[in-house]
Amino acid sequence: MVTERMTTRAIDPEAGGDGRGDDRDGFGTVFGNGRGGDASDRQSGRAAGRGNGAPATLSDVAREAGVSIATASRVLNGGTRKVRDDLRGKVMQAAERLNYHANAYAQAVAKGGSSNIALLVSDISDPYFAGVSQGVVKAASQRGVTVSIAVASNGEDELDRVRGLVATRPRGIIISESENVNDSARQELQEELERYRSSGGRVVFILDRGLPFPAVDVANEAGGRAIGRLLVESGYRRPVILKGNDGYRSSAQRYRGVVGALAEAGIMVDPRAVANGQFNRTKGFSAIMQMAGAGGMLTPGEGAVYGGAGADSIVALNDVMAIGAMTALRNAGIVPGRDIGVTGFGDIPYAVDVHPALTTVHLPLTDMGRAAVESVLSDDEYVADDSGRRLIFLQGRPDVILRDSLPRR
Amino acid sequence: MVTERMTTRAIDPEAGGDGRGDDRDGFGTVFGNGRGGDASDRQSGRAAGRGNGAPATLSDVAREAGVSIATASRVLNGGTRKVRDDLRGKVMQAAERLNYHANAYAQAVAKGGSSNIALLVSDISDPYFAGVSQGVVKAASQRGVTVSIAVASNGEDELDRVRGLVATRPRGIIISESENVNDSARQELQEELERYRSSGGRVVFILDRGLPFPAVDVANEAGGRAIGRLLVESGYRRPVILKGNDGYRSSAQRYRGVVGALAEAGIMVDPRAVANGQFNRTKGFSAIMQMAGAGGMLTPGEGAVYGGAGADSIVALNDVMAIGAMTALRNAGIVPGRDIGVTGFGDIPYAVDVHPALTTVHLPLTDMGRAAVESVLSDDEYVADDSGRRLIFLQGRPDVILRDSLPRR
DNA sequence: CTGTTAGCGCCTTCAG
DNA sequence: CTGAAGGCGCTAACAG
């Protein structure tokens, strides 16, 4: 175990306290305070619905307007308008006065279908998923559908969450998880989703996982190949590769691309120089800390990779890994970019803000989210059989963004 | 307008294309591919619910089990179990066989209340909001409630989104927006929320906005003061301050703290050295680009702040602004940490990964989200009047995290 | 303990 | 064009 933030001190501004402590510090410490209230506090005594409790219902509005509940429904929610103008006016006024809002649940029950989609991610606070989620939510709200979000940090959770989401009967469910689970969980997941689909739901993955459902995908292998080529063109020969879980398809594809391009240039990757892990910052950090620490595998000398020559570059198959790796390098006294080149994959927003700025391949995160909601909301029949039309490709050829973390050498 | 990524080139790995182009490139280019399907594609023909279409309903299960629909309901969903074991068994088997999942909407309608909360943020892809959201979603799912999320990038959107969310009749709504809107929108928002509350909903803000609703808040002013003090203790005298929108309470509080501490040490902030903006990376970047560019306000000389002496530090009242500012400094040939000290506010995960690592005050993002969920789900009566118990404070005294971006000088 | 009977709030034929 | 009536899937008294 390598501890992090080695160089970080925490102080308490008021006292000489013991510092930052556990993240959970102070949580739950709920206490009142005596600030005088704002002038605006109680000044708006405007009629609030039915004054007392429950929100106004359709029949309230109907009664108030002196029409039937059916007409009220037609003007308020019905699509095609076929109501006399005076009635229509009355209804709208009544609705306004009562502050009527349709009850979405009742509508869903009556119509037998909601206007909600579900999104499952493994970690919202990861910039990759945050970007995708942003795309999903914005695209959905443009189309007037709401999105429920759930996070599943591990493979077991995933199945639970999916079950929970299915219960809310969304129009569709979008799964953007990074890691693959063990085979039995995978099998159960597939069955659950198939049942969901056979009951009219639509499912789409973001990044293909090899399951028989549509998936929004990107050119992973081509991207990897581009990175590999860039590496050799820029004069690097001895890369360390940081990949994700082996069961994770996208990681495998990127890896294949990198290794392939390298091989074409006659470069064989030292098996000791490839680290398996997960697509998260911590793993990138710890992998490099370990290599740098234990025997100095990175820098030339006894026990170093590539027969003692050491590494000249780090190829992370994911941006946050690359970023974690960079700070690990620094902790080990190695200057990223100067001593060792670094590349990422994804082009998350903060890739420009690390130093040196990260060379990486661009992934249209927001668009990926958008494409997923389009797929889920479309009425196209999906082809259940296996040929064609299962993958939705964004970007045919990847763009690699050259920054300073991989200078020519 | 200052353009960004000035040093960034984009290449196309295959052709000598014109680079990265617009972000929207390639979007919508949906095309099939001919990959052979996986073996797993059609092998699982397991009974899927009622085989054909609609999912099984409660009465389906009841019939299948040979019991009344009420008993079925009791065993499947009812809390307290009071059903004979043999019947209970039959029901569960039937449910299993039919793959029954309760229809959450119908339940919500019947019970007159859902088990869903709504979350409104201004930008999920901002690490601050991502952290908060993560806390909200996890806490909610632990309690078995789902969360619907919406994003409102600006003040007008906010009102729309709130209306949309109210329509879904959530148990509560959590608002974590960073900017204040104009007065009329603010007034409408307040009224909308008051109606929602009077119909039984609970609302809570994350970071107080001065509206008459509960808010999860942190020690903004104390945090600001801590930063101010740290500044003078570390030998800085001429800070540039990057604040948020003036209407934004938390920003104002932090600002007051910083300026107050500075004043105590006899330091007056040059008015030209404070930039108003918004709490986002871009604003931090452009503010510094502008200062560094136009006449070189930052470095000693004609037209520089502090009577020509220039700035020795940048105090951003938000981490992402600080991060944007750091890369802007670099673009201007100024080395952050060495030439000019930098501080942030928030301690987002990637604050450790910029270089030099960011000195900042820690905010318990995840816990803030969790506290909001607890508030919204609790049954405490809220005090509508203005004295006491409106603010929920996490952390009484802020922790400032010392890293390398503000070395002693 | 179990089944019967009303609704929940809304939509949607179906007559007028 | 409008109103009455039945139904969506489920829960909640209420009798047995």
Automatic annotation (TrEMBL), chains A, B:
<feature type="domain" description="HTH lacI-type">
    <location>
        <begin position="56"/>
        <end position="111"/>
    </location>
</feature>
<feature type="region of interest" description="Disordered">
    <location>
        <begin position="1"/>
        <end position="59"/>
    </location>
</feature>
<dbReference type="Pfam" id="PF00356">
    <property type="entry name" value="LacI"/>
</dbReference>
<feature type="compositionally biased region" description="Low complexity">
    <location>
        <begin position="45"/>
        <end position="56"/>
    </location>
</feature>
<dbReference type="InterPro" id="IPR001761">
    <property type="entry name" value="Peripla_BP/Lac1_sug-bd_dom"/>
</dbReference>
<dbReference type="InterPro" id="IPR010982">
    <property type="entry name" value="Lambda_DNA-bd_dom_sf"/>
</dbReference>
<feature type="compositionally biased region" description="Basic and acidic residues">
    <location>
        <begin position="17"/>
        <end position="26"/>
    </location>
</feature>
<keyword id="KW-0238">DNA-binding</keyword>
<dbReference type="Pfam" id="PF00532">
    <property type="entry name" value="Peripla_BP_1"/>
</dbReference>
<keyword id="KW-0805">Transcription regulation</keyword>
<protein>
    <submittedName>
        <fullName>LacI family transcription regulator</fullName>
    </submittedName>
</protein>
<dbReference type="InterPro" id="IPR000843">
    <property type="entry name" value="HTH_LacI"/>
</dbReference>
<dbReference type="GO" id="GO:0000976">
    <property type="term" value="F:transcription cis-regulatory region binding"/>
</dbReference>
<dbReference type="InterPro" id="IPR028082">
    <property type="entry name" value="Peripla_BP_I"/>
</dbReference>
<keyword id="KW-0804">Transcription</keyword>
<dbReference type="GO" id="GO:0003700">
    <property type="term" value="F:DNA-binding transcription factor activity"/>
</dbReference>
